[in-house]
C-alpha cells in the first residue's frame, strides 16, 4: 500500500470524526448558505485527473454542511434511524473490501455474514428458523421480493408457472391490503403486475389497523398484505387473527414490518406482534431500527423454495451448491455486502442491546406525547411504539410550527396527514438519542409552538 492511501484514509477518519463531533454546532437541517454553496459542484467534467485528497476535501467542505443530520441524536423526521458505531465501522471496512456479495465464491466473508446474521435475525424477530432471507436495498424492495415469492406460490398452486409464462392468461390473484398500507407497497404490487388499483382495500380502525372483521371472503389464489407498524400511528394490524382467517382459505399472508417488525426484539411489545411469526413472508428495514447505514432492507420467506423459484435464473451459469448461494434469494446479482453491517450491528448490540434500543425509543416517544399533551396540544394516535402524531391546531398552524422547528434547528420533525387531518409526526428511532436530547427537543418544540401566533 502506498503511503498516500494511508494518508487519505487517515484524512477521511479525521474529517468523519470532526463531522460527528460538530453535529451539535450545526442545526439538524443545513443552512440556506450551505445549500447555496452546493452550486460550486456545478462545474464542467474536468479534463485532467484530480488528487483524491482534493476530491475528498471538496466533498467534506462543500458536502458535509449540506447534509441533514439524520444520523444525529435529534432527527425525528420519517423513520430514519442512525448508525450504531460498529455498523458504521463495518460499512467502512466493507467499502475497503469492495466485495460483490452476490456470489459465495466471490466473497466468502459476505456470504458468511449473511448466513450468520440471517439466523440471528430469524431468532431475534421470532420468525421460523428455516425461513429464507434476502438482503436488499430497503423495505420497498423487500416487499417486492417477498411478494414475488407469494405470487409464485399462489399461482403455482393453481397450476400456473408465472416465471415462465408471465401473468398473461394467468389465473386471477386476489390481492387484499389494508386501507392504510404504506404507499410503497402499492408500488411493489404494480411492479409485480398485480396492479395497485385492482386490489381489495380493507377498512381500518382509528389507529389505521386493518379490521379483521372487515376482511372479504377469501378463495382461490390470494395474497393478504398486512402491516406491522403504521408509518404514522405505529399501529399493528391484528396479524394473528388475519393469518388464521387467511390460512383457512389457503391464502398467503405477507407482513410489511419496515420498522414495526423490530418490536419483536423486545418482550415488552409482544402484545403488538402477536401472530406475526405465523405469516408466510415478511419485509423489514435494517436501515431503520437496526441502525445500520443506508441502504439495507430484509425480506424473509417461510418457504425458501418459493423465494428461490420466484428469483431463479434462466441459465445456470452460476455455481450450484447445497449451501446458501446469496444471489438465489435476491432480485439482483451483483450487490454490496449489506450482511456485513447487519452482522456488526447485531454482534455489537446483542439481544439486550437491541431490546434496549427499541424500548428507549418507545419511552422517548411517550415522553414527547406526554409533554405535548400537557402543554395543551392534541396527540392524534395511541402511542404504542415510537411514533407520535400531534396537531397544534389547524393546517396553517401546523405548517408554521413545523417550519419554526426546522428553522430553530434543535431538532427536526416533518408534516404528515393522519386520517385526513394535518399534523406533525415525531419518529424516535436512533440509538444515539438520549433523554437529554428528548427534553431539549421537547422544550424547543414547545417554545416554537408558543411563539407562533394563532392567525
Ligand atoms: C419506510 C417504510 C417502507 C418503505 O421502506 P424503504 O426502506 O424506504 O423502501 C415501507 N413500508 C413501511 C411500513 C415503512 O415504514
Which labels suit this protein?
globular, 13 helices, binds pyridoxal-5'-phosphate, 455 residues, seven-stranded mixed β-sheet, four-stranded antiparallel β-sheet, Aspartate Aminotransferase, domain 2, alpha/beta, 40% helix
Structure, described:
The radius of gyration is 23 Å and the shape is globular. The mean pLDDT is 96. The protein contains 13 helices and eleven strands. The protein has two domains: 3-69; 89-345, Type I PLP-dependent aspartate aminotransferase-like (Major domain) (Aspartate Aminotransferase, domain 2, 3-Layer(aba) Sandwich). Helix content is 40%, strand content 12%. Strands 1-7-6-5-4-2-3 form a seven-stranded mixed beta sheet, with helices on both faces. A four-stranded antiparallel beta sheet has the order 8-9-11-10. It has 455 residues and is α/β, with parallel strands linked by helices. Bound molecules: pyridoxal-5'-phosphate.
